[in-house]
């Protein structure tokens, strides 16, 4: 059984036509199990908790949004396969992806680089283009929601985040992870696909540098940087640097669409309108490039993709959520190993009852319900549960829980320092200077008295 914990005594052994094999994790919405359909294909089965099961309006909204998510074209995404909210308990079935999240892979192996980073950027942009083409806003795109499977990167939880956000007025329970939230999300304003674009820029910056572009030190500091500061993108090279910078624009109207990002990544940005591929053709090209089967991408300025072993067609195998353990042979695209050259990467911390926010500290923040974002909890190191969702509005602080051990820093790279929220003099310097001056005056007075 791949990377699953044994079932507990109170767990069901079957849900509908799915046999449950073990636990993949638990989050705010419920428990995620590793399951198997009648054909022996392994799937991820998310069982919704009692709050969802008891609220008929919430269930109807959830079912509507998740059914819409099933219409997303299967390009670089983990598909929603089934939903049964009439069952007791209600559950949602997704493809199972055997592999670590991007959050865990960067923590274990270091940042992505070269053709590996390019393929990751293409895969995630392709996924967002397909999601947006279906009329869905992910609202919770971050490293914990990108899984590195055997056939490339897959984006998960794109339907559930929107469904959760739509129930904000019913639940009045908002929890968010600001490290990859857009300014309009932080403010609790209505969001559209451009919020996902902002998050994509942050995720690619994290993949290339090993940290979130607005830091991960404290909720107030990160929120302030998201709203007012420039992102820290040291270590990210052109031409990807220019694309990411455009995506992290504070003004959503100036951010590119997912299709525009994909055009730039595939080298079609300068092509005439008649020569540019259509939406479906572009998604197909994006998926081929993400799998490394297109070779070099002309005119893009990105390194050519390295040859890959033959792969099955995407969508034909079992895919879904990562298990709590590490894969036996994780995909590595980071820098070569070597002795550690810098301090450990600060590990995300955890609020009570929640898994670590990807690239963010041990603070959740809550606020009144509103049109804010969904929120996904990324996997813990051991065991590793799947990402889970909530909703977010204007922030207010909630108590944090105990900080976990920081992750072991990947060998061979030095993480860039988090951006400083106050570039001025240290607060302790002024009292030290004043005290030193008073001490000098006191010594002069003593010398004068003794000489007199």
From TrEMBL:
Note whether rRNA-binding occurs among the keywords: no
Q: Which residues form the Protein kinase domain?
A: 18-271
Region (Disordered) residue ranges read 269-421
Segments of skewed composition (Pro residues)? 336-349, 401-420
What keywords would UniProt list here? ATP-binding, Kinase, Membrane, Nucleotide-binding, Serine/threonine-protein kinase, Transferase, Transmembrane, Transmembrane helix
InterPro entries (alphabetical): Kinase-like_dom_sf (IPR011009), Prot_kinase_dom (IPR000719), Ser/Thr_kinase_AS (IPR008271)
User: Per UniProt, what is one GO molecular function of this protein?
Assistant: protein serine/threonine kinase activity
Where are its TM segments located? Answer: 428-449
Which residue ranges have biased composition labelled Low complexity? Answer: 326-335, 390-400
Q: Where is the composition biased (Gly residues)?
A: 314-323
Which segments show compositional bias classed as Basic and acidic residues? 269-278
Q: What is the name attached to this protein's record?
A: Serine/threonine protein kinase
């Amino acid at each position: 059984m791949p990377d699953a914990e044994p079932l507990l005594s109170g767990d069901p052994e079957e849900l509908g036509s799915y046999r449950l094999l073990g636990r993949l994790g638990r989050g705010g919405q419920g428990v995620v199990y590793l399951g198997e359909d009648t054909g022996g294909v392994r799937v991820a089965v998310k069982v919704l908790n009692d709050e969802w099961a008891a609220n008929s309006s919430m269930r109807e909204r959830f079912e509507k949004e998740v059914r819409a998510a099933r219409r997303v074209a299967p390009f670089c995404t983990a598909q929603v396969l089934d939903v049964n909210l009439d069952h007791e308990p209600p559950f949602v079935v997704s493809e199972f992806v055997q592999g670590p999240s991007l959050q865990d892979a960067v923590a274990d192996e270091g940042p992505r680089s070269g053709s590996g980073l390019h393929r990751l950027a293409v895969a995630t942009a392709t996924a967002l283009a397909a999601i947006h083409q279906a009329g869905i806003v992910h609202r919770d795109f971050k490293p914990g929601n990108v899984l590195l499977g055997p056939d490339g990167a897959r984006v998960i939880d794109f339907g559930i985040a929107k469904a959760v956000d739509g129930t904000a007025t019913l639940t009045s329970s908002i929890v968010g992870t600001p490290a990859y939230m857009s300014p309009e999300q932080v403010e609790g304003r209505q969001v559209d696909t451009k919020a996902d674009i902002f998050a994509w820029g942050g995720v690619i910056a994290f993949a290339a540098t090993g940290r979130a572009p607005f830091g991960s030190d404290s909720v107030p500091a990160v929120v302030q940087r998201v709203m007012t500061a420039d992102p820290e993108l040291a270590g990210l090279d052109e031409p990807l640097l220019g694309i990411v910078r455009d995506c992290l624009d504070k003004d959503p109207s100036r951010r590119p669409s997912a299709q525009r990002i994909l055009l730039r990544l595939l080298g079609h940005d300068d092509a005439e309108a008649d020569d540019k591929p259509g939406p479906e053709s572009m998604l197909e090209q994006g998926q081929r490039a993400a799998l490394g089967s297109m070779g070099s991408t002309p005119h893009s300025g990105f390194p050519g993709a390295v040859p890959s072993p033959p792969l099955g067609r995407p969508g034909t195998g079992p895919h879904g959520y990562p298990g709590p353990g590490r894969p036996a042979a994780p995909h590595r695209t980071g820098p070569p190993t070597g002795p550690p050259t810098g301090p450990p990467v600060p590990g995300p911390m955890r609020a009570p009852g929640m898994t670590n926010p990807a690239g963010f500290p041990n603070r959740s923040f809550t606020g009144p319900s509103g049109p804010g974002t969904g929120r996904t909890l990324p996997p813990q190191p051991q065991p590793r549960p799947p990402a889970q969702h909530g909703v977010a509005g204007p922030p207010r602080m909630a108590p944090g829980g105990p900080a976990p051990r920081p992750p072991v820093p990947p060998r061979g790279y030095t993480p860039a320092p988090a951006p400083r929220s106050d570039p001025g003099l240290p607060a302790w310097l002024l009292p030290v200077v004043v005290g030193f001056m008073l001490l000098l005056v006191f010594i002069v007075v003593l010398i004068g008295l003794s000489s007199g």
